[in-house]
Amino acid sequence: MPENDAGHGVDVNIGDCRCPGSPRPHPDGDTVTLVPKLTLPMAASLKARVGIGNELTQDISIVGVQYSLVAGYLQKAPFGAIESWSLLEEGPVIDRKTGELPLIPVPITPENIERLIPWANGGEEVAEKADDLYRADFLTPFLRKTSLSLNGGQTVGRTAGSTLATRKSGPSRRSPSKPSLRPVSGGRKSA
């Protein structure tokens, strides 16, 4: 998705306009604007949600990480990815000039996010775009640290974010040899 006209975020079309009134104020559909890059508050929030320290551990499943990331993305910035949206609702006070309720921006709250962009109606598109924007920046430091610890601190042959397993160089350790027993004959040790 292209950045919006102001260059301050990435617009994600979430489908038909949900705003009240006729004609609808957004004929091309409603949009959610995501922050363009992973911010420090968002990274800290995602790290806490995922429950990881300095490295990924075997106890964390891919499904658990993905769930935590999506839940984190679908929050208001700065701790989540949603910078703004085009969603409008009727205001509480009638406009004296028109005699109608004016349309005002819907506040970005967890309740409104769940109500207005559920998974099947825009939420999936927002989550996938956010994942495309932030996943590499968020996970790369942890994957690098995990890779280093798995390789005993050595890394070689990195390509496209992966690390090839290498064997440490140096003398190989010999396995301890078992002492040989002398054959026994007639219950006595042979000489």
Number of domains: 1
User: Could you tell me how far the N terminus lies from the C terminus, measured between alpha carbons in angstroms?
Assistant: 87 Å
Strand content: 15-25%
Q: Could you tell me the radius of gyration in angstroms?
A: 29 Å
- Provide a count of the helices: 4
Helix content: 25-40%
Stretches where pLDDT is under 50 for at least 5 consecutive residues are 1-6, 155-173
**Main sheet properties:** 3 strands, antiparallel
Q: Residue-averaged pLDDT, rounded?
A: 78
Helix- and strand-based class?
alpha+beta
Q: Can you count the beta strands? A: 9
Shape field:
elongated
Q: What are the secondary-structure elements, in order, as H or E?
A: EEHHEEEHHEEEE
Give the strand line-up of the largest sheet.
Answer: 1-2-3
What does this protein structure show overall?
This protein has 191 residues and is α+β, with helices and mostly antiparallel strands. The chain has one domain (10-151). The chain is built from four helices and nine strands; from the N terminus they run ββααβββααββββ. The protein has helices spanning 40-50, 62-73, 110-116, 123-150; strands at 10-13, 31-34, 82-85, 88-90, 103-105, 156-159, 162-164, 184-185, 188-189. The strands form four sheets. Strands 1-2-3 form a three-stranded antiparallel sheet, covered by helices on one side. α1 (40-50) runs antiparallel to α2 (62-73). The longest helix is centred in the last third of the chain and has 28 residues, at 123-150.
